Each structure stands twice: as C-alpha cells, then as structure tokens.
C-alpha cells in the first residue's frame, strides 16, 4: 500500500506494496500484532498522509422491539412510543407513513418504519421495526459526532424497550464519498476488494449471515461464479461506467431460487422472467449507482442485527475503514494471491487509527473473533445462500416494492450538497 509502506505493521521491510497485504501468515504472533497496532504512537501513525477519501454513511437497523412499560397491540403504537422517547432524548426523528414517502425534513432525522420482513409476535407485544439514520461523516474529525448520535439512539432504545435480534434482523451500512458521488476508479477498487476479501469478511459475521439469501455472495453470482479472481479483476477493470460495474456485481440468475421466487413480481413489472436480472440482496449492493454519473450509495448488507451502540459502531467502523482501504489499494492487489484475514485486519486497524477513531478496540475485538469458514466437500462458498425457505420466499416478494428510505435521504443530501 503506497501511503503506508514506510511503517508496515510488522517487522521488516515489505518487498512490494502488494506483498504486504497478502504474505502475512495466519500463524503470526498476536503479541507482536497488538504492540504494533494498538500501541503505536500518534506521531508514528501520521508519517505520511493517506490518499483515501472521507465517506458519508447511513445505517439501517432492523430490530425486534418490545416496550418495557406498555403492552402495545400494533406496530404503529410501538413506533409512536419510539418516536416519543427519541424526541425526549433530543433525537430528531419522523415516523414513515405506510402509504406515503418519508417526510422531506427527515433527511436530517432518524426515520422509524415498520419492518414487515422481521417476524413480529403480537401476542408477546414484540414487533419488527426499522430505524434509518441521517447521513453522517465517517472521519475528518467528526467521529465524535456520529458516535454520540448512535450512542444516544441505542441507549434510548435499550432504556425504554427490550431490544432483541433474530436471524431476520440486520445492520445495513450505506456509504458514499464525502463529495456525494463516486469516481469510477473508486467504484472499481471497492468492487475488486469486495470480491477478493469476501471470504475474509465472511469470517467476521455469524454463520447464518454467510448463508443468507439477503446477503448472497458477489464472488459467486451469475457473472463472476466461474471465473478466476484474475479474470474477475480484468472484467471489473474493463467496465466503462459505475453502472456497468453495479450490474455485474449484482447479477442474479433467473433460474436460481431467488429468480423463481420473484418470477411473478418481475412478470407483473413487465420484465421477462426468463432473463437474468440485477437484484440488491448481495453482500455488497452496488445497484444504487445505477442512477448514473457515479451518484448513489454502495450498501454493505451482511452484518447481523445490532442491539447495542457498540455493535452498530463496530460495523460502521468496519465498512468505513474497508472503503478507505479499498480506494488506496487500487491496482496493488495481486488477484492470484490468497488473502489473509489477519493481514486485512491489521490494515483495517491502521485505517481506524489513522482516522483517530475512538473505541477502535471494538473493531479489534471483531477481528480477534474471526471464525474460519468450513464447507462440505465440493461445496462452493456463497452458493448455499440460495436455499430459500417458504418464509424467505414470501419476504423476497414483500421487499420487491419496499420504499428505500436510505436512498430517499441520499437524494435530499446530494441536493443540498449541489446547491451549496
């Protein structure tokens, strides 16, 4: 990595920028890792200024909530109490109407919405709820702001509600460069990093999120599945636009279980159900870039439900640091080499420390708990995500027409940025 070769996180001088990210053995001594990553002085961290862009992010939280005081009979009653408690905590918020778009002013508020794809238990007064944050700056000295905002929201929820998570819950993180749009090279770099490090990131999530139909493998989708990593990189590099990169990262097989589930929906929308199509239910969703000109967000969808501020902060740190790292790697990744989770973790910690993120030990704890993936003989990683249950089949059809609150907020944010 060009901007940090002068202080590699392990002893010895790397022979090349690319070898430093790949050649780290998984049997390295943890004590050396801790001393070089956690306790490096701030003056040492800032020897060279990085070229990575700053990012804005928006987080979507899918949770199961139950009031500690009131036995609500409907999700709308619960949502109203969530709104009241957030308002008392001085958190700007708005309840999304089930029939209309989110209110205009909510681009700078938290949005509270029903999440019908998270099974509710009305008899137990538990309901699936989605909270969507405003867009916030990831680094550039503003981390205290977003960390405080997320902490206030999650503290309020845990004080007044029982906050639980199920396999259907999620933490989705949308990112976009601080300018509001992507350069084509940034999109390509993130796409290649997402493909290359997919198995490494798999080790950081619970096993059920490695097999989820809601976070399918980009590496093993319709377009990339039977290509070598070198061929995948070559295909990404040859794309003329962010839109074409997005199409290939999110191409779904019409004959897959997902395609079969959505056949009637696609036919109703005048799409040919026999043709392959793009869909957003991949680990990395690039489809919001289809608006053109690099405008739109990229969404990381693999993280499980977060019930505490620490969990939300951890996933935001992971995605923000990974995006920064990806934009700096550029063409330095050697696709034929095997990625190492521990090496990736060291560089992610570098980015966290470079950004002076507080609580970076949360990210370190996630990396320390990485669990290698195990597969049955002959099994292709990522392909088992399309084992669709009856519940998932129904949810896929429900989600097809769902309002995208995060993208609504992005549109209003970019309008303000362009106006200013």
UniProtKB/TrEMBL annotation:
Q: Where is the composition biased (Basic residues)?
A: 24-43
Give one Pfam family.
Amidoligase_2
Q: Which residue ranges does the record annotate as region Disordered?
A: 1-49
Where are the compositionally biased (Low complexity) regions?
Answer: 11-23
Name the chain's protein: Uncharacterized protein
Q: Which organism is it from?
A: Cladorrhinum samala
Q: What is the lineage of its organism?
A: Eukaryota, Fungi, Dikarya, Ascomycota, Pezizomycotina
């Amino acid at each position: 990595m060009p901007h940090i070769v002068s202080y590699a996180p392990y002893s010895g001088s790397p022979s090349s920028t690319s070898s430093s990210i790949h050649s780290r053995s998984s049997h390295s001594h943890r004590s050396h890792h801790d001393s070089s990553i956690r306790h490096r002085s701030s003056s040492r961290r800032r020897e060279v200024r990085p070229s990575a862009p700053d990012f804005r992010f928006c987080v979507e939280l899918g949770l199961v909530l139950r009031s500690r005081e009131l036995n609500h009979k409907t999700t709308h009653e619960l949502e109203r109490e969530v709104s009241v408690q957030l308002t008392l905590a001085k958190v700007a918020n708005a309840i999304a109407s089930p029939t209309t778009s989110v209110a205009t002013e909510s681009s700078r508020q938290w949005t509270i919405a029903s999440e019908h794809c998270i099974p509710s238990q009305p008899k137990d007064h538990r309901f699936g709820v989605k909270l969507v944050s405003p867009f916030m700056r990831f680094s550039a000295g503003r981390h205290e702001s977003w960390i405080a905002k997320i902490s206030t929201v999650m503290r309020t929820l845990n004080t007044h509600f029982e906050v639980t998570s199920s396999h259907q819950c999620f933490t989705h993180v949308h990112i976009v460069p601080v300018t509001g749009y992507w350069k084509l090279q940034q999109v390509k770099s993130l796409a290649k990093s997402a493909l290359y490090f997919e198995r490494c990131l798999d080790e950081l999530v619970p096993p059920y999120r490695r097999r989820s139909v809601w976070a399918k493998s980009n590496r093993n989708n319709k377009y990339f599945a039977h290509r070598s990593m070198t061929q995948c990189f070559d295909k990404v590099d040859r794309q003329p636009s962010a839109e074409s990169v997005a199409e290939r990262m999110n191409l779904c097989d019409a004959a897959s279980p997902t395609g079969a589930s959505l056949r009637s929906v696609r036919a109703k929308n005048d799409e040919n159900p026999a043709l392959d199509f793009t869909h957003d239910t991949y680990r990395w969703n690039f489809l919001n870039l289809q608006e053109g000109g690099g405008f739109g967000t990229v969404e990381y969808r693999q993280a499980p439900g977060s019930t505490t501020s620490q969990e939300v902060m951890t996933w935001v740190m992971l995605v923000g640091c990974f995006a920064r790292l990806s934009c700096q790697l550029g063409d330095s990744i050697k696709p034929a080499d095997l990625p190492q989770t521990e090496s990736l973790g060291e560089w992610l910690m570098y980015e966290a420390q470079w950004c002076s993120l507080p609580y970076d030990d949360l990210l370190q704890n996630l990396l320390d708990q990485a669990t290698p993936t195990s597969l049955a003989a002959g099994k292709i990683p990522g392909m088992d995500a399309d084992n669709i249950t009856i519940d998932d089949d129904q949810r896929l059809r429900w989600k097809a027409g769902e309002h995208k609150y995060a993208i609504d907020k992005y549109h209003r944010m970019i309008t303000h940025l362009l106006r200013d």
